[in-house]
Specification:
Strand order of the largest sheet: 2-1-3-4-5
Number of helices: 7
Pfam family, one: Response_reg
CATH superfamily of the largest domain: Response regulator
Protein name: DNA-binding LytR/AlgR family response regulator
Distance between the termini: 41 Å
Domain Response regulatory: 2-115
GO molecular function, one term: DNA binding
Organism: Pedobacter cryoconitis
Helix content: 25-40%
Radius of gyration: 26 Å
Length: 239
Amino acid sequence: MSCIVIDDEPHAIDELCELIAQVPHLNLLETFSDARQAIAYLQETNHIDIIFSDISMAVLNGIEAAEIMNNYCHFLVYVTAHRGFAPEAFQAKADGYLLKPVSYLSFRQKVEDLTLKYQDILRLQKDEQQFLFIKGGQKSSYIKIKYSDIVYIEAMLNYIMIHTTSGHEITYIGLKAMEDKLQVMDIFFRINKSIIISLNYLDRVDGNIARLAGGQNYQIGEKYKSVFLDFLKKHTLKS
């Protein structure tokens, strides 16, 4: 997990850096003596897994900075010499509160706790990349479709038909909107104005014809041909 350290005392930064160095799955990216500098870095970097921050700092303290910092990290952990800030820390949605001087055992235990939460986050993100929901024919009806089950998608007037390994589903959305949704997946290709295919079920390409494993054959449109064939060439075994 990536992390940064914020503390206005150099020796405190050094001590925390030593602890981080002893945990193999932590990657320290930067240290800051000022919360404002850290926020500028976060806004440029966009995301950090863990922020280890002091609370009592000049100009902008760790509690005041939390509202912004929480937007750029999975976990915010306070490292402070003061017990009295605990209520404010957890009101600021902190994920940990370590008292200085921080022992290796307490630090390691907190990191292990965060690691388990981080693994849950990764699992959820992976699940989100494995399926989608479409609106069904009835009000408040939703149908779950796994990306891996989609064979091809066909445009039909103002709706699309999603052909899967077990049948087909119809939903009222344009093919372009569906194409945009599928951009995060590298297995779907639009081959003409009305068809998106899954490469998982592409059997072969003969000239301008894409032949699917289920027996469906579709012509590759001129507008989409060059991009599609370039992709195939990059993944073609060469002698």
